[in-house]
Structure formats: C-alpha cells, structure tokens
Design brief:
43% of the residues lie in helices and 22% in strands. By secondary structure, the chain is an alpha/beta fold. Bound molecules: zinc ion (ZN).
Length: 408
C-alpha cells in the first residue's frame, strides 16, 4: 500500500476506535456519519476490532423505522494497564482497565535521599506485586506507564534532571524493561496528568488544553488535540520556573524568584517554617505539632481556614503570583481550557476559588475570551491514570497495533 493510503487507513481506524470508545453503545451508521466514512469501510474496521475482542455487539438497539441496528460497544476490560506515579512524597501504582476502572492500588513512601537505583527497584517490586495479585492473563496486560517529575527523554527513558529528587542522568526505563515482559513507557508527570484528565477527566474532547499541576512543585503541560507538546528539546511546560520576582528566593533549579519558589507546596511550607522560627506563626506551628521543620503546606491551609492571619497572608501571596503566572501562559498560548489539578487543588476550596479570580484579574481582556478554567476531576490518581494511558494511547494511535508497543 502506498504510504499516503496507509496513513489514511490508520487515521480512519484510529477515528473509528475513538468514536466507539467515547460513544458506546453506537451503531455502524452513526459511526460512519461521525467518521465521514462509508458503511462498508466502517464494517471492515469493526470486523477487525471484533476479531480482536476490542469491541463487541450488544445485539439490536431501538428501531427508528426499519430493522433495528446492531449496537456496538467498546470492551473496556479487554486489556489492562498499569500506571505508576513517582511523586516526591509518595509513589502510587494502579491497575486499571481501558475505561479507567481501578482494580488494584499500591502505595509507597518516597525517600529522596535513597539512591535512584534501589528506589526504582522498590517501585518495580510494587508493580510486580500488583501484577501477581491481579491474576490476569499476561497477554491482557497491555503495558506499564510511568509518570516521573522532571526533564526526561521518553524514548530512551533517561531522567536528565529531576529537581524534586535531585536526580541527574538516571536510566529509569532499563530497570523496568529488564523486569517486565509487558511494554513500559515513561512520560513527564505533568504531561501524564494532562493525559489522564484529557482521556478520562474534565478536558475530554477539548482541543487545546493547558494543565497545571500544583503540588510539591509546579508544572504544566500543553496538549494540542491528540498531540503532547513537548517543545523543541522536550522541556516545555516548566511553568514553575517562570521567573516572577527579580532577586527573589533561590529555587531548586538554581535561579532566583521562580514561581515554584513562591507558590508551590514546598515554598508555602518553607515560608511558614521561617515565620515560625521568627515566632510569627503560632497557629501554624500548633497544626504541625510544635516543630517548625515539620510544617507542611497542609498545616498552613488548616491554620488559614481557622482564621490565622499569617497563614492567610502566605497563601494569598502564593495565589496572586500563581494567578499572574497562569495568566501569562494564557496570553502566550491561547488555550481552550486551563485545568488546575494536583495536591494543592485538593487541599483547599478557597485556593481554587481565589486562584480562578486572580487568573481573571490578570489575563489580558481580549485574549482567550472563551477560555474555560476548570478543576481537575481525577483527584489524587490523575497522574497514575494518565501514566496508565501511555501504552493505551500508543496502541490506539497505531490503530490497535500490538506491534507498535512491542517495537518500543
Ligand atoms: Zn526555578
């Protein structure tokens, strides 16, 4: 087949899979209409997908006059996926099906001081445990996806630099590939989170989406339709290192005044610790059990909710700068939607309401007039779900091809 014809066939197959996946149950005439294909072309594809057991017939639906049409549905548990979220404070491993139904979960505390090799072996132990416990046939595990904070090369699986863990040049993928027969893929954690919300969450069917991950650090990811925009050298999305304060505090990246050094969970905790040492943060200190070094962002949120002025001031400053940073991104990128997700979004409703207001205050009046600012809906597991989506995404992008996964 000529190259162009082959590409068109692949695109059509991919579209038909997506249409069935997102609109089940659906009949062939509806698929043909949505995909802009003839019914025989659709049937050629659906026969193949039925053979693979990726879709199945539910029998005849409601008649609209003539013979009732056969309804097809996507078989979400035809394959299973494993998602790994390597977070600075916790590692989460989940086993889910293609509909993001989660069957198993395993957690592990992250220790930043541990050497990367033994840390990653412990993560792999967790994956092994979940596979052994799940009791699913090997051929039905489509793959393992890993979300990892920092700058990395998704092809080679090398972590170039992860400021959260202070890792440099760590070969992550080989650790997993030597232990598992299933295909293993890796992506930056912010991009994994963006994929999770795009496949199963709040930004489904939205074209240009900027997802902001607010947690221990601050990161962002831009999706353009099916594409992840990684930038020219794979480093796009470093919203946390947008410099907003000349001569501000030093940041984990080595620069000063980065957004992450003002508004991240880490920065909120750090500022409160300093206030506590200066004897200005009695209520926050009480929440943390009396030891300044034990203060975490969550203690500042609790004190703020209880009316503590110091805590409220720290949080207000974090929100204001974040609002400015995100408004800058909106002016620059003109997305259709901004998704705000991550641990900080889960810890405080006030933060979300006020941040939305601050973004509106700073955004250029005529830019992105129809933008929607939304809160992520996948919660704590957004990154793990998004990571699990990595092998599925590749499988579907290549027209339900195992070969595309085996060829990694
Ligand atoms: Zn920085």
């Amino acid at each position: 087949m000529a190259y162009n014809k082959q590409m068109t066939a692949l695109k059509n197959k991919r579209n038909v899979i997506d249409i069935i996946r997102l609109n089940s149950p659906i009949n062939k005439a509806e698929i043909a209409k949505m995909a802009g294909l003839s019914i025989p072309s659709v049937m050629k594809i659906t026969d193949e997908l039925e053979e693979m057991k990726l879709i199945c017939s539910l029998g005849r639906g409601e008649s609209t006059g003539g013979k009732p049409p056969e309804m097809l549905t996507f078989v979400t548990n035809a394959f299973y996926l494993i998602g790994v979220d390597i977070g600075r404070s916790r590692v989460k491993v989940i086993l889910m099906d293609m509909g993001a139904q989660i069957y198993e979960r395993r957690y592990m505390t992250s220790t930043a001081t541990e050497n990367p090799e033994s840390f990653l072996e412990r993560v792999a132990d967790l994956v092994e445990e979940i596979i052994a416990n799940a009791d699913i046939p090997k051929e039905r595990l489509l793959g393992i996806g890993i979300g990892m904070p920092g700058i990395l090369n998704p092809e080679s699986g090398k972590i170039i630099f992860s400021p959260n863990f202070m890792w440099k040049d760590v070969e992550l993928l080989p650790v997993f590939r030597k232990r598992f027969a299933a295909p293993v893929l890796i992506e930056n954690a912010n991009r994994a989170m963006a994929l999770g919300e795009h496949w199963y969450g709040v930004s489904q069917n939205v074209n240009r989406v900027l997802t902001v991950n607010l947690g221990y650090g601050i990161g962002a990811a831009m999706l353009d339709g099916r594409k992840i925009d990684r930038g020219g050298s794979g480093c796009s999305g470093e919203l946390g290192h947008m410099i907003l304060k000349k001569d501000g505090n030093i940041c984990s990246c080595g620069n000063r005044g980065c957004l992450e050094s003002i508004s991240s969970g880490y920065a909120i905790a750090k500022t409160a610790q300093q206030e506590a040492r200066n004897k200005n943060a009695e209520k926050i200190l009480k929440e943390a059990g009396g030891i300044p070094e034990d203060i975490e962002a969550k203690h500042v949120f609790l004190a703020a909710e209880a009316g503590d002025m110091t805590a409220q001031t720290i949080i207000q400053e974090a929100i204001e700068y974040l609002g400015i940073g995100i408004a800058n991104c909106i002016n620059l990128l003109d997305p259709d939607m901004v998704v705000l997700a991550g641990r900080i979004m889960l810890s405080s409703d006030y933060f979300w309401e006020e941040l939305k207001a601050q973004i509106g205050n700073h955004q250029m009046k005529y830019s992105a007039m129809n933008i929607r600012i939304k809160k992520g809906i996948l919660g704590e597991e957004a990154t793990a779900i998004g990571a699990a989506t990595l092998p599925l995404r590749r499988f579907i992008n290549y027209g339900a091809s195992y070969q595309a996964l085996v060829d990694l």
